[in-house]
């Protein structure tokens, strides 16, 4: 996702993207799709060939990868984890370079949407500006507090899947109840969503403005909203509680993995 965004962004002629993947097949596919992409066989080689490093692995794999690339990190590296489970202070305690966290979104494939940004304590104002400028080519970088990361990433990163689930069901209901073709229902919902997004982001509309303008009292839309409100009451609260619980579980696994790595190194 990030590779596609960077190689198709306005920065494509100014930066060299270097990548590795534990699956050689996936790496070959990436290079076929993006011929200018530089590929490396290992994470260690990738770090050595880069100035800005993105760590894009599952939470449980992160401690091992960090320990493997640690000898190859320079003081002038910029190290970025896209993993919400690893704390900035934990990385700064281990790594010699400046550290950041960035939570991207699938919307970056369209060079749109928000990337959440958290800066480490060792970064200067200029270094923070440089990273945000880099991310600005593929997204709207938004600085948040690390303590707020979980709920913010539910909105910006998980949110596209949550809303796509609702929109898909909306389209399918039109097929079931109205008998229209699935492709027509999907197209209408997609184009409606695109237009709504422009109203909210380009025309200055707030959510309430859209509701008031469309749901005329006593009208058809207003009656439809009456159906939605009881069903939606508390549903997103429940969703956020569930994701927070899952994130806590991931955090425990990362801590356990880190302990295992430290113990094995001691034994060696």
UniProtKB/TrEMBL annotation:
Residues 146-247 form the Pyrroline-5-carboxylate reductase dimerisation domain. One of its GO terms (biological process) is L-proline biosynthetic process. One of its GO terms (molecular function) is pyrroline-5-carboxylate reductase activity. It comes from the Bacteria. InterPro entries: 6-PGluconate_DH-like_C_sf, NAD(P)-bd_dom_sf, P5C_Rdtase_cat_N, P5CR-like_CS, P5CR_dimer, Pyrroline-COOH_reductase. Belongs to the pyrroline-5-carboxylate reductase family. Residues 4-83 form the Pyrroline-5-carboxylate reductase catalytic N-terminal domain. The lineage of its organism: Bacteria, Bacillati, Bacillota, Bacilli, Bacillales. PANTHER family: COME OPERON PROTEIN 4, PYRROLINE-5-CARBOXYLATE REDUCTASE. This is Competence protein ComER. Gene3D superfamilies: NAD(P)-binding Rossmann-like Domain, ProC C-terminal domain-like.
